[in-house]
Amino acid sequence: MAVPTLALPQKKNYINAGSGLKSWLLTTDHKRIAILYLISISIMFLLGGLMAALIRMELLTPAADLMGSDDYNRLFTSHGVVMIFGFLIPSIPAVLGNFLIPLMIGAKDLAFPRVNLLSWYIYMVAGVMVLWVLFNGGLDTGWTFYTPYSSSVSTSEVLPTTLAVFIMGFSSILTGLNFIVTIHTMRAPGMTWFRMPLFLWSMYATSLIMLLGTPVLGITMLLLFAERVFGVGIFDPALGGDPLLFQHFFWFYSHPAVYIMILPSMGVISEVIAAFTRKRIFGYRFVAFSSIAIAIFGFLVWAHHMFVAGMSIHAALIFSLLSYLVAIPSAIKVFNWSATLYKGSIQFSTPMLYAMGFLGLFTIGGLTGLFLSALALDVHVTDTYFVVAHFHFIMVGGAVMGYLAGLHFWWPKITGRMYSETWAKLAALITFIGFNVTFFPQFIVGFLGMPRRYHTYAPEFQVLNILSTAGASILAVGMILPIFYLTSSLWSGKRAGKNPWGAAGLEWETESPPPQFNFDETPVVTVGAYNYGPVEDKIG
Amino acid sequence: MAHIVPVRTYLMVGLALILLTAITVAVAYVDLGPLNEVVALAVAAIKATLIVLIFMNARYAKGPTKLFIFMGLIMMAIFMVFTMDDYMTRQWTLFTQP
Ligand SMILES: [Cu+2]
């Protein structure tokens, strides 16, 4: 492993505190576990991205060029499973949350360090299972595993995949549990709830969903398992079950799971915007409570995925209304971030560029979500590329942009090195342009009626599809560039001081990279988060 | 903080769980009409309560822990109420068909 070269004969820190593979694989240090997660989810992200590239290549022409429908079904299913369960759900919590929560509250580690390591191993077991399925027959049900296709028709690898998702859920539950207990019990003296950085509020809200929602995903997978293996009648009408029940079960977790993916990004954006406007976040308490509100109301909207599935009109009306309501806390955040920008001394460093990208893209993603909660309009666009574009604006434009903002913001803290600002800014710009060229045409082509999940399409849609594929190749450049400049920064990057951005927060008061136990002595907190005054003297 | 429960209690509860399982199995062989399901669900609920309260020590939980256990129940209630809303109103239509 090349990582130990990072820490030259320097001060003792978490990276040079031990050496050899064993010291990493048996570590209980939250910072090292974050690095383990960073490596594993990056591999998942690359694989998922590779599949996306294949999908876009196939869709370059209306005909079936590269593959038939069976292979295409397996391709988009694996893309979904790998990206959602392998990358998006763990991404910010497991990497940045793991690394930063103890640092931000002034603690030595998480409440249960060994459980933390266990959750990584569970993730790895499930991850390997998913990859095994990929190379051994694949799965063709879509990442949603809808019944009755998944329970009684599909001959692909349903069982190993659902088992992997079941197992992966435990990793998520344990992470959520660990974060909640840590935030409740391990805050440094003086770190009251309302002095906490907003990143912690959003991690807390995310953990709530992980803890309360993920068990339902596990139950859903078990029920599917029971029906497929033992013929227990739950979803199959022939056995006295109801296929729609599966969708209720599945979306009860999987809609809140969208907030598991986006809430952490929102937390990152709050930190980044505060640091690069040198201001306290406008309406701190509103932003904090809106995270909790999203976590709670997120559980009341699941059936908006089922408007055309044959459920009752009464239930559809209620879920439509509730879906509109959940937009309010998200809007509160967007307005408060915008208000924070007002009269701030804005500095367009790389993390801020990603954060600005997030603001615009997330807003478009959120607003098109309102289109989809409108019952009549939803009938028109269900299962079209409009939906695909909508959730990619949320998950790539929102979650991935937030992840990249956070990775660039805390990279100097994690590694002790600065990356090349020039390259990083260029990558942020390329990502933003590539993303829009890829996904904006999909709104149009979807609205015109192109259905999702087919490898062929009507010829009149080709121009927009070519545009989308061209955008995807730009986006790919934006995603690959960071691999090079971030990796090379480990060797040739300028050393980062304690606080290269002049940001407020406990994590910036310790060394970069932090010592093994984070702080030499337990910090005492006397001021609230984002205490930005004249800060020129802070940088260094 | 941690409340010590005597091993005897665990054994008794374990025994009760086995007995209740036996009841579930036995009742499955008797035709009670719609009451079969009621009995099965009631027995299952009693077993779950015993496990949560005693094996999982929820009886002695305080503060946030208690709140989180309670939130689990609320989640279940939300899921059942809204899902049943769908099933109970499937026949309703907004407008009568001509
Ligand atoms: Cu949803």
Task: Describe the structure concisely for a colleague.
The complex is a heterodimer of chains A (540) and B (98). Chain A is an all-alpha fold.
Detailed description of the structure:
The complex is a heterodimer of chains A (540) and B (98). By secondary structure, chain A is mainly alpha-helical. Chain A has one domain: Cytochrome c oxidase-like, subunit I domain (Cytochrome C Oxidase, Chain A). Chain A is built from 16 helices and no strands. In chain A, helix 4 runs parallel beside helix 14 (385-415). The relative contact order of chain A is 0.11. Chain B is mostly helical and 98 residues long. Chain B folds into 2 domains: 1-56; 61-89. Chain B is built from 3 helices and no strands. Chain B has helices at 7-28, 35-55, 63-88. In chain B, helix 1 runs antiparallel to helix 2 (35-55). The longest helix of chain B has 26 residues, at 63-88. Chain A binds chain B through residues 180, 184, 211-213, 216, 244-245, 248, 252, 299-300, 302-303, 311-315, 318-319, and chain B through 64, 68, 71-72, 75, 78-79, 82-83, 85-94. The complex binds copper (II) ion.
Text of the CATH class of chain A: Mainly Alpha
Strand content of chain B: under 5%
Helix content bin of chain B: over 70%
What radius of gyration of chain B results from the CA coordinates?
20 Å
The number of distinct helices of chain B, counting runs of at least 4 residues, comes to 3
- CATH 4th-level superfamily of chain A: Cytochrome c oxidase-like, subunit I domain
CATH topology of chain A: Cytochrome C Oxidase, Chain A
The helix-and-strand class of chain A reads mainly alpha
How would you spell out the order of helices and strands of chain A?
Answer: HHHHHHHHHHHHHHHH
Mean pLDDT of chain A: 93
Shape of chain A: globular
Largest interface: A-B, 21 and 19 residues
The major beta sheet of chain B can be summarized as: none
Helix content of chain A: 55-70%
Number of domains of chain A: 1
Bound molecules: copper (II) ion
